[in-house]
Amino acid sequence: MKTLLLTSLIFWGASSFAAETKSTAATDVTLALNWKPEPEFGGFYEAATQRIYIKHGISISIQEGGSGTPTVQMLANGKVDFAIVSADEIVISQDRNPKNKVVGLFAVYQTAPYIIMTHAENNFKSLKEVYGSEGTLAVQAGLPYHQYLVQKFGKPKANVVPYLGGVSNFLSDKKFSQQGFITTEPLAAEKGGAKIKSFLVSDEGFNPYVVVLAAREETIKKNPELVKKMVEATREGWANYLKDPAKTNQIMAKMNKALDLETFNKAAQIQQPLIEVKGQVLGSMTTERWETLVKQMKELKQIKSTPAAKDLFRP
């Protein structure tokens, strides 16, 4: 797993960074991502590379992730100080590991970016039609949102196969539909020449917070000032990134060669309405949303207990 000290040794040189860290008596923390540098993490990289974390007394080391990176387990087991997880992962973690509670602090996506992507030529009008079609649907069978859609629409007529990542199978088969992130797979498919239509899963009623900054309950109790600074700096980083993502996109594009700068910029634009809600503080969460999610996860038999919303997040 690649670890990047993002204040930043790569772009500004070790000596100037080390001096600044020492002079501000910054606290060293590690943040684990569940994927590689992309716009979904733009605010975190903004706060790191533009010295916002340092300004708030935090020297941050960001570990990029990959497919299957178990950030929620890493956090629960004390391997990292903070991690990026999804709200449903927090609910499952507290159900299975109640002694080492993982708690949400800041939710980037207010509308979940999960999608099912289809070929426009199929003229699907709804996700119900996609699940009722006789084509192929690539999706991880254990995903809570897939289980929710199966519960809502019934057993799919589509041939459900494991999602292996990427869009190569999608591009080669007009009857192929797949899971994805609204900021990633559709842009890759369009670059490959496909005409696509995407359906947000959230429109069907399953809308967990996604890209959630989380910490252990133990950390929140023992070092509340550090947690407060982490949230404040993260919020400032996201506010700046949403206003002007260009500089940080250029930095992330150098770290993640799989995407070109044009894709970074398009993705940043696409995700903005899923992150910003008029009249709402960036990253904030509500008890009602968490209670709804717990109820849905219980109905899907993803959990046995009923974690209390007040234990799942900090407002």
Polypeptide structure, described:
The chain has 315 residues and is α/β, with parallel strands linked by helices. It is built from 16 helices and 11 strands. The strands form 2 sheets. It has a 6-stranded mixed sheet, sandwiched between helices. A 5-stranded mixed sheet has the order 8-7-9-6-10.
CA-atom Rg in angstroms: 20 Å
User: What is the strand content?
Assistant: 15-25%
Instruction: Give unreliable regions as ranges.
Output: 5-23
Net shape: globular
Question: Helicity range of the residues?
Answer: 40-55%
Sequence-ordered SSE layout with sheet pairings:
Elements: E1 3-5, H1 9-12, H2 14-24, E2 27-32, H3 42-49, H4 52-55, E3 58-63, H5 71-76, E4 82-85, H6 87-96, E5 102-109, E6 114-119, H7 127-131, E7 136-138, H8 144-153, E8 159-161, H9 168-172, E9 176-181, H10 185-191, E10 196-200, E11 210-216, H11 217-222, H12 224-243, H13 246-255, H14 261-275, H15 287-299, H16 309-312
Parallel strand pairs: 2-3, 2-4, 7-8, 7-9
Antiparallel strand pairs: 1-3, 4-11, 5-11, 6-9, 6-10
Helix pairs in contact: 3-12, 3-13, 6-15, 13-14
